[in-house]
Amino acid sequence: MSQAIKIAIIAAFAHIVEGHVRAIPTGANGFGCRECNGKASPGPFSVNGALGGNKAFGANGAAKVTPGQEVELAIGYNGGHQSATLNYFYVRYACGAATANKANFNKGCNGNTCTQLTANQITQVDGQAANNNNYPVDATQSRRSGYKVKFKIPTIQGTPEQRKCTFALVEGRNWGAGWDFEIQAANAPTPAPTTTPPPKSIKGTYTLNEAGCQKDAPNCVCLQGKIVVKHTAGANTATALLDITNYPKHEITLKEKIKGAWSADGGYVLANCGPQADNDLDINIASDQQAASGGILNIGVVTQTPTVCGSIMKPSSQADTYATPQPIPTQCAGCQDIVGWEDNGKEGCTAYKSCLNGAWRTKGIDHYKKYADSQGRTARDGCCRCGGGTRQVATTTKAKPVTTGNQAKPVTTGNQAKPVTTRNQAKPVTTRNNGGNNGGNNGGNNGGNNGGTTRRSMFGNDVAMADDAQTTAIAFGTLLTACTAMLI
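-> structure tokens emitted (488 positions)
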């Protein structure tokens, strides 16, 4: 087979690989991963090797550290992988010239070109003392906040060049991310603290288009529209107007949770009343150190099976007028609450004041999981005002009422089983990425759909699809493996 045909076959399948892994910033000021857009900004989703790409050492800066200093790194998936052998992360590091080749961090360290830390060299995994049960790190569930690992920097001998080291979190597919460090000599004085740059504003208009689209999931659709941000330099909050095509306009608050980066606390659920599936977004804007003002917008789609693509862009030169939008409708026309649904505190849909006017969009599925009923259904499944409930939709056979959540068959309409009390859900939010809106729905889409594939949408609007992106990716991956074997 000719080289041209080999390249054509590989290129034809390469675009379907979903970008699953990305670095998450940690610490007060963040350790910038090599492929990140700033120390406080997450990296892009990628399956591009153990370091997430091919940039040179220090492309995003290198933190100065001392031997024995404890550091924390974090990495996350945007896909719901369940492999008992592949979805486990190890910490590996290499120094000097070995940091230039991402393959040096692959499983086996390419003939001892890197060092893999053992459980007794790790101090913590996700806040718990490290041991052989939690390290390597079990990452078989998607998590927006990332899987966090702490360890102490080892003592490295040699010249300053030989003490330039890259630490990586790498899983069984050799997907991962790398962070660059300059390790000081064992007897060197403590490095002086770095000068804090003056605060900058991240205000501006961030245009969503093909140019900034990451195309990081199979068959994903690029977002169109704009995000207009109001922000004063030095303020720890910013206001953003989401004006995304085919979705209702929405004004949200971005908070500076890590110095130099503002994000939607708890994430953001992108949803509408149409057939599109809901997508959980991680919206992050980091200050652009290369510009006098403005930032770098990074939209990561952290749903288990994304249907829209992530985006990375800087503000455009054209400023847009910021106009506060009208409130989002309480619920979509034709939606009905699941009859008799109550949470684990015996409270029904009317108790969820936190859902009104689209407020559920900025809390995410994890907030409501804490109050799931005995079947694992949350207010996001049962209540129209929270983005759940049932709607009448057309299928390829005949129209049936379709439900969200763990419903074995269509639910008919009736009166609430009993009156409910009011609850404002003013409880702390625990952020953990369990695949966005698929949480609490395990098995829920397997009943009442005649074996067809469905995608969950806002207000219970499950829509029959011709194929499933994740299944398609697996099928094409198998075919690609076969094709690759033919090329060897």
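The chain is about 10% helix and 25% strand.
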